[in-house]
Design goal:
CATH topology: Ribosomal Protein S8, Chain: A, domain 1
Strand content: 15-25%
Pfam families: HupH_C
Family: Belongs to the HupH/HyaF family.
InterPro entries: HupH_C_sf, HupH_Hydgase_express_prot_C
Number of helices: 4
Helix content: 40-55%
Organism: Paenirhodobacter huangdaonensis
Protein name: HupH hydrogenase expression protein C-terminal domain-containing protein
Number of strands: 5
Radius of gyration: 22 Å
Strand order of the largest sheet: 1-5-4-3-2
Largest sheet: 5 strands, antiparallel
CATH superfamily: HupH hydrogenase expression protein, C-terminal domain
Order of helices and strands: HHEHEEEEH
Length: 140
């Protein structure tokens, strides 16, 4: 028996059903993070979801207190959700085209962590600046 086309179209209009599945995955991952420290990433770009489902997902997660914008080879936005440890991360290229949308379940998204090489370079730069300031103070 063939499925009723109207029923198929109604289901498609309602969405894929992935929004609730993603929320369950977030819930389980957040529990693991709390118990073991294990982090988890969900690639929303790879999941079939309607714009309405994506909007409903972000509304269900809510907004937290932290938001960051990174301008490096395009714009990345990191937003804490209403659940500590659950972050929405969106990457765009220099033409503002969406390149990735993720939910990261982690204490701190990787993109916000300072890289070891950058920290070493910053330490050397600050040491040079302090040397310059000391030289100016001695000269005056």
């Amino acid at each position: 028996m063939r499925p009723d086309l109207n029923e198929v179209l109604r289901r498609r209009a309602a969405g894929t059903g992935n929004m609730v599945l993603v929320l369950h995955e977030v819930s389980h991952a957040l529990d693991r993070l709390a118990r073991t420290g294990e982090t988890h990433v969900i690639d929303l770009s790879s999941l079939p979801m309607t714009p309405a489902e994506l909007q409903q997902l972000t509304a269900s997660l809510g907004e937290g207190e932290v938001r960051a914008v990174i301008e490096a080879e395009g714009r990345s936005e990191v937003t804490e959700t209403g659940f500590s440890g659950v972050w929405l991360v969106t990457h765009r290229d220099t033409d503002d085209m969406l390149r990735g949308r993720y939910i990261e379940i982690t204490p701190l998204p990787e993109i916000l962590r300072s890289q070891d090489a950058d920290i070493r370079a910053a330490a050397a730069r600050l040491a040079r600046k302090l040397d310059q300031i000391s030289d100016l103070e001695e000269a005056s």
